[in-house]
Amino acid sequence: FVDCGTFKVEAPSGSYAEKYLGTSDECTDPDFVVKNRVLVKYTGKAQTVIVPDGVQEIGETVFYGNKKVFEVVLPNSVETIRKGAFYECVNLEKITLSEGLKTIGEDTFSQCTQLHEITIPKSVTRIDAYAFYGCGNLTAVSIPEGITTIADSMFAECKNLQKVILPESIKNIESQAFARCKNLTDITIPQNLTSI
């Protein structure tokens, strides 16, 4: 279909073509490219981005280096944010995470230097390495119960981070997790912690 322009493709239900192209409930907003409920590309220029309902996964590096976005709202359908999804979104100040979110991938918010607040839902069970690396304006964060590991360099270079609330479920704090957090003054070490 090279140089055919824009057209609609329909495939029989249950066919190989439907699986390859994605189901018929894909997003119709031209700013969002969604395949099999995964947001794989954002082409819009909005300062406030509201991800369409039904998206289950934010794909790798979807918003990488986007300097236009200031705020992102995720629907409750989102369960996973993949590696580097918002990496170097240097003007991102606020993100509303979905109540059904389970996994925050590696480097998800790395170098989001204007991000100053984030609420991590209780549904989250895994946060990977470097997830908030270099978020220089982040001042406080509360990790939900159920998380067992503060991964490698998760909050490294968060120079204005002052307060961290860790749940009793934390057992491991990995290398460089809070490296160069020079203003961190309030953190309580859980009783169940076994390794730093």
Question: What this model shows, in words?
Answer:
- By secondary structure, the protein is mainly beta.
- The chain has 1 helix and 14 strands; from the N terminus they run αββββββββββββββ.
- The protein has one helix spanning 16-21, and strands spanning 32-35, 38-42, 48-50, 57-58, 71-73, 80-81, 94-96, 103-104, 126-127, 140-142, 149-150, 163-165, 172-173, 186-187.
- Strand 1 (32-35) and strand 2 (38-42) form a beta hairpin.
- The longest helix is centred in the N-terminal third of the chain and has 6 residues, at 16-21.
Please give the order of strands in the largest beta sheet. 1-2-4-6-8-9
Overall pLDDT level: 89
- Spans where pLDDT lies below 50 across 5 or more residues: 1-8, 18-25
Helix amount: under 10%
Distance between the termini: 55 Å
Gross geometry: globular
Radius of gyration, taken over Cα atoms and rounded to an integer in Å: 19 Å
Q: What class would the helix/strand composition place it in?
A: mainly beta
Secondary-structure element sequence?
HEEEEEEEEEEEEEE
Number of strands: 14
How many H/I helices? Answer: 1
